[in-house]
Amino acid sequence: MIAVITGDIINSQHADTEVWITRLKNLLEKWGSAPQTWEIYRGDEFQFKCNIDEVFWRFLAIKSLIKSQENLDVRIAIGIGEENFSSDKITESNGSAYVHSGRLLNDLKNDGHTVSVKTSNDSVDRDLNILLKWSSKDFDNWTMATAEIIHEMIMNEEITQEDLAKKFAISQSSVSQRLKRANYDLIVETNQYFRKKIAEL
């Protein structure tokens, strides 16, 4: 089984495309090569595949990267399932993970949510999607400053609050306050729960 993320940038027409697309490409390149592992297409849509136990953390890395730019957000559909055919281009690969993810993104555009997951198990889907609906109320309201801090924490789990304070030229107490406001400890617990549920499939 693999995880496939299909996403699109919300409000992309109101932002400097060169800035967000360069940052997104740089992030995705850290996880694999284009166009086999990831691809950006139709201007503001993208697809990316990864291991199932990494997918929640990868989703949050993308979310926090995009939210750290003014007026931008991202809609993300997580499909988990099989990969029956692996092409040189991810957008030509096939299997239930791709089908789940692609269809789910269309559903998200209609229902107004920004993240959802689809597996072959309705019970797991129900549990995880309730969790995602609650948690995304926080994620969707991250300020740019909070998103920057979260992104650094996700991309470098060894980083200290002192390191973050130096990087952003703020006090350590400000870093601590931002992490508390973002419920970072709860985000870590949610990642662990997500991985546990996915492992049951």
List the total number of helices: 8
Uncertain regions: pLDDT < 50 for 5+ in a row? none
- How far the N terminus sits from the C terminus, by CA atoms, comes to 9 Å
Our Rg estimate from Cα atoms comes to 16 Å
Net shape: globular
Class based on secondary structure composition and strand pairing: alpha+beta
Kindly state the percentage of residues in helix.
Answer: 40-55%
Strand line-up across the major sheet: 2-3-1-4-5
Kindly state the number of beta strands. 5
How many strands, which pairing sense, and closed or not: the largest β-sheet?
5 strands, mixed
Order of helices and strands: EHEEHEHEHHHHH
Instruction: Tell me, rounded to a whole number, the average pLDDT.
Output: 95
Percentage of residues in DSSP E strands: 15-25%
Pfam families: SatD (PF16264)
Protein name: SatD family protein
InterPro entries: Lambda_DNA-bd_dom_sf (IPR010982), SatD (IPR032580)
Written overview of the protein:
There is one protein chain. This protein is of the alpha+beta class. It has helices at residues 17-31, 55-67, 96-111, 122-139, 144-155, 161-168, 172-181, 184-199; strands at residues 2-10, 38-41, 45-50, 73-81, 115-118. The chain has a five-stranded mixed sheet, with helices on both faces. Helix 5 (144-155) packs across helix 7 and helix 6 (161-168) crosses helix 7 (172-181). The relative contact order is 0.15. The model has no long low-confidence stretch (mean pLDDT 95).
Give a quick summary of the entry.
This protein is an alpha+beta fold. Helix content is 54%, strand content 16%.
